[in-house]
From TrEMBL:
This protein's UniProt keywords: Glycoprotein, Membrane, Transmembrane, Transmembrane helix
Residues passing through the membrane, by range: 34-56, 68-89
InterPro entries referenced in this protein's UniProt entry, alphabetically: Marvel, Synaptophysin/porin
Protein name according to UniProt: SYPL1 protein
GO cellular component: synaptic vesicle membrane
Compartment(s) of residence: Membrane
Its membrane topology: Multi-pass membrane protein
Domain of life: Eukaryota
Domain MARVEL: 1-133
Chief localization: membrane
Keyword Isomerase attached: no
Length: 133
């Protein structure tokens, strides 16, 4: 929910007193929520399947519906995991674009004559990149 993040000046006299609050563009929360929710559901399914495999292996082996159901759920999960990863990768690209150096050119106060805007620090996106990989 980058659209709720506001940049305000710590110094009201900065930028010649022309600074107006700036909001980032983009709301990428739905992609992240889908990715994390699917991960939590897959984790719960894996725990349930492990209990069935270990504790009720005789029922699993005697009933033909359990293996077929397990295969169907596994295929559906793999497909949804792939889709959620694509959505998260697209959202991550959007996050990088919304928080990159290109946003400076869109800030009105930075276009004032004699004003120079720059980032004080740049946050690494390595952990987010790894989440997609």
């Amino acid at each position: 929910r980058l659209n709720t993040v506001v940049f305000s000046t710590p110094d009201p006299k900065g930028c010649g007193g022309t600074w107006a609050d700036v909001y980032l563009m983009g709301n990428f929360s739905s992609s992240a929520q889908f990715f994390v929710t699917l991960a939590a559901l897959v984790f719960l399914y894996c725990i349930t399947a492990l209990v069935v495999y270990i504790g009720y292996s005789h029922v699993y082996q005697q009933n033909n519906k359990f293996p077929l159901t397990d295969l169907t759920i596994s295929i559906l999960t793999a497909f949804l995991w792939l889709v959620s990863t694509f959505f998260w990768a697209k959202a991550l690209a959007g996050i990088k674009g919304s928080t990159g150096a290109s946003i400076i050119s869109g800030i009105k106060s930075c276009k004032a004559p004699g004003t120079t805007c720059h980032f004080v620090s740049v946050t690494s996106m390595g952990i987010l990149n790894m989440s997609v990989v």
